[in-house]
Amino acid sequence: MTTATTSRRDTASRRDTASRRDTASRRDTASRRDTASRWDAPVTVLAASAAFGLLLGWATYALHGTTPLLERATNSVSTWILWTAAAGALIRGRSLAAWCGALMMLATCGGYYAASTLGGDFGAGGLGTAAVWSVAGLAGGPLLGWAGWTVRRGRGDVRAVAGAAIAMVVLGEGLWMGLALRYWTEAAVFLTVGVLLTAFLTFRLARSREPRFWWCAVLAPVFAVAFYCAEKLILDSLIGTF
Q1: Average per-residue pLDDT in the chain?
Q2: pTM of the model
Q3: Handedness of CA 127, 111, 180, 226 (dihedral sign)
Q4: Torsion of CA 184, 177, 75, 137, to 10 degrees
Q5: Disulfide: which of 100, 148, 171, 201 matches 194 by Cβ 3.0-4.6 Å?
């Protein structure tokens, strides 16, 4: 009888221990979910995007006058806008990724021109240029934010199109530096990086067994030419009027 009682007590004790463990595990899981939820909250994500954009704009101004390659690497359309693709890949919601892309580009413009104002390099004549760059950021930021989200979380052939859009900005910037500005060394660097980025994204899509992964490699140079034409014929023309 004593043995049976002891056995029942041991069984009850094991059940109680298992129950406590399950309860603790559920609480820990719920706690992690709550923490992740707070970090994923739209207000938090938007605030982080804006803060990073301000920092990026300030850093761009601060690096003026350093080495030519470093200055070009930071003070360029592609370098600014690629960060929106990186942010989009980290954000869970597609719409939020696009909104963060727009906000980040506005904040980057704001940070850059605020820093230049404090440095005494910005006058009333630069307002038009600032407006043009802000509008360009509002156009490109959401696109690249969406592209970053789509490459990581999207489904179907649109992933390859999104990958080509990301590579487009680096390749297009390289074309603009070479053909328009005649900065051949910087152009070669950007084009090389663009080719490597295209290859990486295409390989990533192939590994995920995307049927038309090769669209990324085909469309990237096509989009790059369109990007160059837009920058040369539209953006430069608008900036030249101020």
Answers
A1: 84
A2: 0.80
A3: negative
A4: -160
A5: 171
